[in-house]
Amino acid sequence: MGSLAISNVFLVICISSLLFCQTSHTFYLPGVAPEDFRWGDLLNVKVNKLTSVKTQLPYSYYSLPFCRPETIVDSRENLGEVLRGDRIENSPYVFNMRQPQLCNVVCRTTLDANTVKQFKEKIEDEYRVNMILDNLPLVVPLPRSEQEAPLYQLGFHVGLKGQYAGSKDETYFLHNHLSFTVKFHRDEITDSARIVGFEVTPFSVKHEYDGQWNENTRLTTCDPHAKQTVSSSNSPLEVGDNQEVIFTYDVNFQESDVKWASRWDHYLLMSDNQIHWFSIVNSLMIVLFLSGMVAMIMLRTLYRDISKYNELETQEEAQEETGWKLVHTDVFRTPVHSELLCVFVGTGVQFFAMVLVTMFFAVLGFLSPANRGGLMTAMLFLWVFMGLFAGYSSCRLYKMFKGTEWKSIALRTSFFFPGTVFAVFFVLNALIWGQKSSGAVPFGTMSALVVLWFGISVPLVFAGSYVGFRKPAIEPPVKTNKIPRQIPEQPWYMNNLFLIFIGGILPFGAVFIELFFILTSIWLNQFYYIFGFLFIVFIILLITCAEITIVLCYFQLCSEDYLWWWRSFLTSGSSAFYIFLYAAFYFFTKLDITKPVSGALYFGYMLIAAYSFFVLTGTIGFYACFTFTRLIYASVKID
Questions:
Q1: How far apart are CA 422 and CA 184, in angstroms?
Q2: Model confidence over 52-83: pLDDT tens digits?
Q3: What's the DSSP call for residue 441?
Q4: Per-residue CA distances from 487 to 18, 313, 565 (Å)
């Protein structure tokens, strides 16, 4: 009991420390050095993909007939950015540091039937335009009350739908005038400045001018010479065939007290912040309390059982006893489909190592949103290099089951899970490709993924398997009879399926609130950066999976059912079933996806996520139960 108390105190200290870190001002390590700009320096605005929460299909900025520079130059994207569908390119929007501009004309164009159709489709699906300046994404401030800081919406909408007064017909309007605000923090000594904010207010304006259009034409709707600016969309630009469109912009520079190291704080501000904090803390404390109660009950019951068994003096007395000791000659019998279990466990160890290292660097701030695609890139490379642990774990367990063909297990570990995920990913990518979306992974990137898999991951799995198989086999604490013991008929509440699905509820309960915010950040295009809380949730998930599996395994052994190997994996792994059900609930209640392709993408990616969660939590439960059974059977005297 003393060790349990110490571990609980240690966990509370860890939680308190992480909560303190989470509430303090975070120092971000964005992966780029700050850049100082002097008065008049050129500021090049870059454009990124068009995004929509209704379709989840990103498109390149220049897939729409926006104004183009003389030469379009693609920025070099990392692997994570490409997989996210980012396509970063230069733009015709060029500023000079701390030099305001009024009503700059970017270009003039005339819409035809094809471009009208494109614009209307994007406006109907609520697509947003994303831009970048000095590695900061463009945001639209959404004001709240006077006492609270504004929330930020990533990107501005291509246009909007509306109705003229007295008309019931919906009309499409295009945002063709952008009013930019660049916030900067000035160094009083050097007079140089660093950019700390990039905001925009979009307007739809039907620009007018006198005479014929030429390069020197002055607009009457906004004129920098008369200092006449656009401040409303009272005369909006309708999207129609043969409609003339003039794209314009203003830029204003605003000095800010926000320092460069803290410039992401406002971007990461979430709505309903208090509800988020209190819900998470409340959920974690409840789960922690239940886990502590379960652990205490288990320790007391086991202590009594072990003491009673060790006090039995004769063989006759031992035979009269019932419970988990009677199956000691069968409890470590090799399970059916043991090779598949070894593969799943090895893959789960690989996942666990990847998640643990990723969490460590994320909590330290190395995977900040400023490093676009950094999180996905880090997870991919960690997954590849953690193949060493996958091979080692699967072959160690395989050798315990008296297996001899370690190369076969290494091959299955290398290809079973990654092959399944790659097949689903390939089908989803084909669907995206059919929609001509920039989210489709190019052939070169797909080839790079295959090279990572076959060139690094597979050899590391084989290397780990070789090392694991050369190690001495894990010896069980008791001997196994050649003839298996007959399992007595079990009551309905000890049914395999019933206990497996009951066991998955508690681990799901530990993560479902945080899961809501993760799904929101992924599918509603928001930032997620509360890795301190996520790490706490991961610790609680680890404890919950272990303890619920141990409890149900103990009840199973007490009813003289020794087939615990697969059940221990499936008990905690079944939480993935509830994860997928919750994802389906989220889809129908929170998202406005109507296109079949977008729905297929959502459920395809969530299926991969649930499958990964199944392997991870199943492995945690398996090792907890494996350690538990070894300990209790090593603690009793067996003739």
A1: 45
A2: 999 989 999 999 999 999 888 888 778 888 88
A3: P
A4: 47, 26, 15
| Residue 109 neighbours by CB under 8 Å, 6+ apart | 65, 67, 244, 245, 247
Tell me which amino acid residue 46 is.
K
- Model-level pTM? 0.86
The DSSP annotation for 449-501 comes to HHHIIIIIIHHHHHHHHHHHHHSPPPPPSS---SSPPPPPPPPGGG-HHHHHH
CA distance 278 to 273: 9
Say if residues 50 and 88 touch (Cβ distance below 8 Å): no
Q: Which amino acid is at 326?
A: L
Are 304 and 321 in contact by the 8 Å Cβ rule? The answer is no
Residues paired with residue 422 on neighbouring β-strands, in sequence order: none
What is residue 527's predicted lDDT score, i.e. its pLDDT? 75
Q: Which amino acid does the sequence have at 235?
A: S
Q: In 3-state terms, what secondary structure has residue 92?
A: strand
How far is it, in rounded angstroms, from Cα 203 to Cα 177? 5
Give the separation between CA 604 and CA 601, rounded to whole angstroms. Answer: 5
Q: How many CA atoms lie within 13 A of 334 on its CB side?
A: 14
**Could you give the CA distance from residue 92 to residue 105 in angstroms, rounded to a whole number?**
10
Contact 373, 79 (CB under 8 A): yes
pLDDT band at 3 (very low <50, low <70, confident <90, very high): very low
Of 326, 340, 483, 480, nearest to 409 by C-alpha is 340
Closest by Cα among 370, 357, 269, 360 to 28: 370
The pLDDT value given to residue 152: 84
Nearest one of 628, 630, 569 to 301, comparing CA atoms = 628
> Average pLDDT, stretch 313-317?
51
Using CA atoms, how far apart are residues 181 and 477, in angstroms rounded to an integer?
Answer: 70
How far is it, in rounded angstroms, from Cα 298 to Cα 324? 14
Classified as helix, coil or strand, 395 is helix
If residue 230 lies in a helix (H) or strand (E), which one and from where to where? none
**CA dihedral defined by 368, 370, 371, 372, rounded to 10 degrees?**
110
Percent of the chain with pLDDT over 70: 86
Q: Give the amino acid at 315.
A: Q
Q: Considering only CA atoms, which of 424, 450, 429 is closest in space to residue 440?
A: 429
Distance CA 567, CA 547 (A): 14
Q: Classify residue 503 as exposed, middle or buried by CB count within 10 Å of its CB (0-12, 13-18, 19+).
A: buried
